[in-house]
Amino acid sequence: MTYFLRLRQSLEVHFMKEKDDKNIRLEYWEKTRRKWYNVYFFSGIGINLLLYFTKPYGFDPSGSMFWGSLYGLAIPFTTMFLGVYIHKKAIGL
């Protein structure tokens, strides 16, 4: 009987540590969330700059105001949301 009590207590301690670990990661994410949104947004702007300088090789949305603005907004926002999603999955939230 005492074996089962010790097993139950050790399992409770294990799950409490896991819960505390997740809370620590969640608190870290809440503190630094804006920083990571900015990092991934500006990396999307960097991708836009790289695509801008490769114009002669096939990517040239500047012929149309619609396509230029669509690519200019869609690429940074897409990288921001994808980067944040992957980051949250990587830290286990």
Structure description:
- By secondary structure, the chain is mainly α.
- The chain has a domain at 31-93.
- It contains two helices and no strands.
- α1 (2-52) packs antiparallel against α2 (65-90).
- The two termini are 37 Å apart.
- The mean pLDDT is 78.
Percent of residues in β-strands: under 5%
What does the average pLDDT come to? Answer: 78
Query: Using only CA atoms, what is the Rg?
Result: 23 Å
How far from one another are the termini? 37 Å
**Strand-and-helix sequence, N→C?**
HH
Low-confidence spans: none
Largest sheet: none
- State the total count of DSSP E strands: 0
Structural class: mainly alpha
How does the overall form come out from the CA principal axes? rod-shaped
The helicity comes to over 70%
Question: How many H/I helical runs?
Answer: 2
Please outline what is shown here:
The protein is an all-alpha fold.
Ordered list of secondary-structure elements with their pairings:
Layout: H1 2-52, H2 65-90
Helix pairs in contact: 1-2
Comma- or semicolon-separated keywords:
mainly alpha, rod-shaped, 83% helix, 93 residues
